[in-house]
Sequence to fold (640 residues):
Amino acid sequence: MTSPNPFPAGATLADVGEFGLIGELTKRFEQGPHVYVGPGDDAAVIRTPKGHVVVSTDLLVENRHFRRDWASALEIGHKAAAQNLSDINAMGGTATSLTVGLGAPPDLPVQWALDLADGIAAEAALVGASVVGGDLTRANEVVIAITVLGECEIAPVLRSGASAGEVVAIAGRQGWAAAGLAVLGRGFRSPRVLVEAFKQPEPPYAAGLLAAHGGATAMIDVSDGLLADVGHIASDSGVAIDITTSSFELDDPLRAVGAALGVDPLEFVLGGGEDHAIVATFPADAVLPDGFRTIGVVAAGEGVTVDGTTYDGPTGHAHF
Amino acid sequence: MTSPNPFPAGATLADVGEFGLIGELTKRFEQGPHVYVGPGDDAAVIRTPKGHVVVSTDLLVENRHFRRDWASALEIGHKAAAQNLSDINAMGGTATSLTVGLGAPPDLPVQWALDLADGIAAEAALVGASVVGGDLTRANEVVIAITVLGECEIAPVLRSGASAGEVVAIAGRQGWAAAGLAVLGRGFRSPRVLVEAFKQPEPPYAAGLLAAHGGATAMIDVSDGLLADVGHIASDSGVAIDITTSSFELDDPLRAVGAALGVDPLEFVLGGGEDHAIVATFPADAVLPDGFRTIGVVAAGEGVTVDGTTYDGPTGHAHF
Fold:
């Protein structure tokens, strides 16, 4: 769905101006059937949702959340949209629309902004959502502010609903993005499949709604790190969770990178975020929805253990 | 609605950490009846709206959209929320909820972030809206990303609905913020009422819904400048608009500042933005809703004129 760049090669945002660029950006955002009024008015209007409205927002800052020398603008756009869409997924909702604020220095190439828009639009299209509005302004560093709206036809699945005796299950790849980041951080570019997983995650977008319909009692997407995010379910639900490492098949690329970097590949799985896997708890007798596999159990108590004991590896990251 | 700051005097974001600060920020955001799930989960959930969902977003960057030495964090919070709430107003909608992304350097005083939150929450409370979610991250400069959601019970009033023969009307103060900015830009601090109007605008929040119910055919909020924004109605509606300067009462403070700075006070009125006045077009025989006064007429043609001729004063501002 990419449109050509009508500006001279090498043109920057300062050359083109805000209004010229907004017009070109908007061409990249196809408006789906959810949209009543798209970009260009004081606000966008989304048709009355099925059920409640779900909303999530993220602010991404250059060199902190993404690096222009590590990933293309297209990949950064995909990833920025993915991490917000994943939050709607983790509530059992369906994303309908996004707004995008872009702050950028005047010397940013216009092509970069257009590619970013293409990436966001393409990722949103995977779930049928449209970019309906945004804002463009000058800033000293590139910042991307994305808000996603969705609809939640049945009751949203919160982090707080897990009970002792239930099982913990996961859908989606886990640990690949962390391994890819470790590779990039050491200055390597392969295994390519892991680097790609870091640069452009592939969240299991069908999993959230399936889990909600399949009786999930609590749910979260893995963005800070598996144990950290499982810990949010444990603390919000007032329960203890034990993760069983033998339930993870250590994918070949994870083993290869672990061996190459001298790291236990389980660290990528247990500490890794950004694959946006979905973790949910289910009653012990539930039939797990397609794509989910059991990785642990819920018990009375508090905190997260691994194979019954405290885990002392990396579990996630803080932001200040 | 302000909570005490529990941190040591002079504490910075780096001292307190992301999670500690998020907890304190969240305390400042009272959750109204629209909110089904507030801050703290993967996403917030807003109850099914009356009618369609309206959404608007703005990205504000330090020293471009606000200056920490010109206005307090409380005032900046009020203003940041106001300019988004005004966009919902300009559609004829009712705001229900906001998300706030804050990017900040680690040496930002915690008190500043808390005051910002208080300002946003207080402004949102004026229209019954709640801050339901957000994101906090490190950045090299302070950036504030606000998205407002609202509901639109009747058809939204777009910029594109004006027809020849209608009248143009305005609700709210116009030109005060621009005059306040001119005062601050010259290093003065008075007339205080104008400086306050720039630092903390008072949009006519009731006007949008009244206009929508009162038969408005097109509507916009004045944020770029009166003539620039009237120009958006003209171009989107495919009509010409003439503004009659004699319809404006030049308020005393505007005259005083005009005289002191050697500026025609009409320039503040015609070129000024940021008061977030509401401009709407109505059929010629309509009874204008409370608070609206006629300032011009719609005719066949294109472009905006002032008293029948081209205006060559300042009409607004571009962003790159």
